[in-house]
């Protein structure tokens, strides 16, 4: 396919479905969209609150003025590489202050961050980078045992567009051809750097593509989500408003920050009102709670992977006195909600997606609504229809159907998705989320409940694992003739992947399956964490694999044997295999 790259960089006229002009005008008239880029919005905030903390960790902090100046310098250095304005740049960074600097530096330099995870490998990034025509790749130089610097060099071999590798953080070896983050713009005067940024920003429109997010999708082909300057900042401002953020807010986040929830909830959200991003290196409970405590967090987001954090001995003393917690990612256990409630801390729920829509139960909503629903969308102009699956016929309140949506921060189409875009939207232009939902009434008001998914995805701690994609990868192994991957319940992450396999001869074990997936460059979070060999896969009357039955079997396995057979795809522990 032809990459959507012009001499200026990413060309939305070739790749992106735009908002209709009358809607753009309406969103401007009512004050949702401002005629500013994200970099210009941040500059205004930094000017208003120069001495307030913009980013804090357990051990360090920088002010808005410092972040603004630092990002200007790095942006100047990026512009000196000759990379055209509008060019996509892949980000593979962990949670650190330098990551936030690089985020704003890219936006200031007029480059488009492509939000990926540090755990992504060749299988994911090789495809994504070619799809968007990425010209740069920013990697973390100190990411555990995985050498992202070497990975970045390998990814660029034979790549049609990748030419610039930037390393953030220490790396033990000198890397030929790579740029060090610390050297970008080194020595340039602040006024010179700012003038360069201002010149670049003058060429960018508020309706231009600012960021590319990656959808989990329902096929093996990643879908790329274009986010525009005006709508993406509005998304974050609305989130901040929904939970009462102010310049006094210090909002904690431990999940990957270069991710839609991280950008909207942890970075742009608090920053839009002069608040501080409190950044933990990971959601690991001990470290996360320490960061919240030492950085004086007033608010925090708790994702699915931390839904048992209330059992940690430091939970009570850390959370007591905070102004609010947002629970996101899956059905919230009543034990967690009750524990937060006993501490006298307000809690609400978040349902969100990279494609746009955020629905939240606000701290002012009735307790039952906050505990059992995801409330209502952020914007008065968000449209939600719940339709019978496979049709455009609405279902009445109280009945379950497919959640479909449109609004001032929801995409109009994936990047160069062709026929996939036709299937992803109704004839009226509503995005088909693939989620099952219903409206319920509590104390006379309507609230949204999420009832599950149509899409065959596994929600592993908030990360969506595409079952069909993993099945196709498993079938590459010579010992596997058929494969079905389903969700297995997990008390910590919500769901993990269980693979049911068939094949003749000797059955490979889980370690061999993992070696196979590692060899073809598949991110670890997608690896099955249990395999079950069966003589044949159950099928329905129309000869389709009966995944409903397999999910029941996986749930029974989880109930009966999980504690003795569970593995952790982020460690080297072993997982038992039923033969």
TrEMBL record:
One GO MF term: medium-chain fatty acid-CoA ligase activity
Entries under Pfam families matching the protein: AMP-binding, AMP-binding_C
Domain AMP-dependent synthetase/ligase: start-end pairs: 42-414
InterPro entries, A to Z: AMP-bd_C (IPR025110), AMP-bd_C_sf (IPR045851), AMP-binding_CS (IPR020845), AMP-dep_synth/lig_dom (IPR000873), ANL_N_sf (IPR042099)
Residue ranges of domain AMP-binding enzyme C-terminal in the record: 469-544
Statement: the UniProt record of this protein carries the keyword Ligase: yes
Keywords, comma-separated and alphabetical: Ligase
Signal peptide per UniProt: none
Tagged with keyword Ligase: yes
GO biological process, one term: fatty acid metabolic process
Highest taxon of the lineage: Bacteria
Entry's family note: Belongs to the ATP-dependent AMP-binding enzyme family.
Name of the molecule in the record: 2,3-dihydroxybenzoate-AMP ligase
Organism: Gordonia lacunae
């Amino acid at each position: 396919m032809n990459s959507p790259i012009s001499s200026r960089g990413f060309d939305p006229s070739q790749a992106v479905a735009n908002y209709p002009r009358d809607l753009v005008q309406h969103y401007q008239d009512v004050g949702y969209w401002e005629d500013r880029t994200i970099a210009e919005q941040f500059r205004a905030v930094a000017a208003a609150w120069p001495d307030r903390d913009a980013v804090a960790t357990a051990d360090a902090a920088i002010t808005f003025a410092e972040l603004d100046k630092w990002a200007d310098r790095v942006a100047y250095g990026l512009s000196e590489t000759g990379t055209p304005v509008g060019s996509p740049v892949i980000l593979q960074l962990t949670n650190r202050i330098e990551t936030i600097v690089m985020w704003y530096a890219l936006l200031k330099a007029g480059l488009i961050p492509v939000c990926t995870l540090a755990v992504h490998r060749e299988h994911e990034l090789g495809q994504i980078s070619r799809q968007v025509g990425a010209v740069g790749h920013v990697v973390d130089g100190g990411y555990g045992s995985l050498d992202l610097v070497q990975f970045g060099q390998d990814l660029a071999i034979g790549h049609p567009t990748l030419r610039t590798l930037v390393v953030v953080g220490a790396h033990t070896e000198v890397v030929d051809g790579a740029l060090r983050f610390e050297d970008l713009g080194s020595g340039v005067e602040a006024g010179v750097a700012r003038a360069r940024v201002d010149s670049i920003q003058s060429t960018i429109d508020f309706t231009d593509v600012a960021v590319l997010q990656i959808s989990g999708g329902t096929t093996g082909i990643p879908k790329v989500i274009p986010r525009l300057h005006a709508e993406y900042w509005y998304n974050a401002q609305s989130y901040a408003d929904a939970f009462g953020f102010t310049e006094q807010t210090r909002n904690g986040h431990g999940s990957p920050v270069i991710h839609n929830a991280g950008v909207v909830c942890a970075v742009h959200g608090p920053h839009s009102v002069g608040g501080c991003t409190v950044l933990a290196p990971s959601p690991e409970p001990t470290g996360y709670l320490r960061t919240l405590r030492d950085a004086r967090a007033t608010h925090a987001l708790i994702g699915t992977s931390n839904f048992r954090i209330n059992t940690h001995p430091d939970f009570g003393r850390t959370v007591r006195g905070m102004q609010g917690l947002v629970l996101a990612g899956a059905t919230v256990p009543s034990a967690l909600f009750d524990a937060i409630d006993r501490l006298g801390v307000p809690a609400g729920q978040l349902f969100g997606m990279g494609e746009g829509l955020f629905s939240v139960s606000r701290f002012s909503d009735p307790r039952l609504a906050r505990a059992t629903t995801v409330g209502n969308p952020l914007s008065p102009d968000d449209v939600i229809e719940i339709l019978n699956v496979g049709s455009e016929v609405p279902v009445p309140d109280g009945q379950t159907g497919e959640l479909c949506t449109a609004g001032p921060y929801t995409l109009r189409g994936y990047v160069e998705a062709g026929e996939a875009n036709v299937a992803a939207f109704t004839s009226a232009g509503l995005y088909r989320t693939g989620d099952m939902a219903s409206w319920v009434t509590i104390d006379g008001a309507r609230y949204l409940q999420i009832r599950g998914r149509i899409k065959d995805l596994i929600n592993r701690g908030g990360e969506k694992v595409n079952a069909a994609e993993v099945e196709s990868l498993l079938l590459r192994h010579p010992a596997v003739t058929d494969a079905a991957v389903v969700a297995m319940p997990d008390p910590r992450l919500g769901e993990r992947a269980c693979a049911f396999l068939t094949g003749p001869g000797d059955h490979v074990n889980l370690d061999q399956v993992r070696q196979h997936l590692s060899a073809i460059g598949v991110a670890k979070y997608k690896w099955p964490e249990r395999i079950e060999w069966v003589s044949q896969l159950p099928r329905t009357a129309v000869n389709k694999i009966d995944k409903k039955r397999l999910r029941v079997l996986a749930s029974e396995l989880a109930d009966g044997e999980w504690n003795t057979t569970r593995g952790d795809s982020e460690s080297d522990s072993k997982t038992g295999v039923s033969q």
